Amino acid sequence: MNAWDRIAGTIASEFSDIKDLEELTRVTVRLLVAAVLGALLGLERERAGKAAGLRTHILVALGGAIFVLVPLQAGMETADLSRVIQGVVAGVGFLCAGTILKSQDEDQVRGLTTAAGLWLTAAIGLAAGMGREMTALLSALLAFAVLRAEAPLVRLLGNRKPGRPD
Question: What residue segments make up the domains of the chain, in order of their start?
Answer without folding.
Answer: 21-148
